[in-house]
Each structure stands twice: as C-alpha cells, then as structure tokens.
Amino acid sequence: MVTITQVLQFHVAQVSERIRRLKSDAFKSETAQKWVYVSPDGAVFRCRRKCAFDLDAGWTQRWEAYEKVTACISPPHPSWPEYLAAREEASRWLTALHLLKFGNGALPLKKDVRKAVRAGKFAHHVSRAKASALIFSALASLSSTLIELAADPERFAEAERFTAARREAQHGQS
Asked: Which of 43, 57, 74, 88 is the one with CA 20 to 30 A from 109?
C-alpha cells in the first residue's frame, strides 16, 4: 500500500518531468564561432583582452566554436503559460509535503497552519504576498488527496509502481 508521502513525491516527480520536457522542447541552440583570447596555459578564455600587455604575456588569439542559445522558455514563448502553471503546481505539491512534515505525517489543523503562516514558516520559496494562498491551496490539495487515498487506494497504483521503481533504483546503486 502506498503512503501519502509517496503519492505526493509521485506528483512532484510528474510535474518536474513536465517542466523539464517544456524547457527542453523550447531550448534551441546553434554552433557559432568567434575570436577569443586564450591564456598561456590554455585554461582561461576571454572574449576581449584586458590590456595591451596580454599579448606580450603570452595570450594568444584564436577562432573558437561555441553553442549559442537561440531560443529558450521565456514570456514570449507560446508554452510559457503552461510552464508557469506547472511551476505553480510543483510548488503546491512541495508545500503539501512541507505541511505533511509540519503535521508529523498527518493533516495539520488549519489553525496551526494559520499560525505558521503568520510566523513565515512556509514562505521560503514564494513571495510573502502569495504565501498564504499557496499554503492553503496546498492544504486543500493535501486534504483531498488524503480523502481519495483512504477511499480508493487502487487509484494510486501508478504512484506505487513509481515508488517501487525508485526504491529498486536506489538499492541497485548501493
């Protein structure tokens, strides 16, 4: 049987994979070349020389290939709203994990969460203005997930398979 922590970790992994896929689909680069100055030992590259004495000190100039980023996920990109929604969802599931830890593995009381919000305990990864909304949204998600898990544990079979595969991968590395 799968635990609530494992279900939340599964949700975080799914959303993280969606974010990674969105970013990699949007990323485009091309090979370009430019002149660079190379130190005498070949370890340091500069686009410009610092002073006229660099060439006297043994710095050489050569034509170097590099990867130039031509497109990435950014506000003008068409999948930007989907990316922001996925980031917000990941933040909500991570906050739900923090709430579960705060409640010692159980759903914390709303009044205790409210006190923690006022103390600023959960606002470390979101602006203070949005913290309260995010935390109570995460509390609602956690509550509904707990109810769904208690009512129909078979619904979370995919999370159980994910946990088993993750555990097997960890034991395989040891």
From this structure: 88
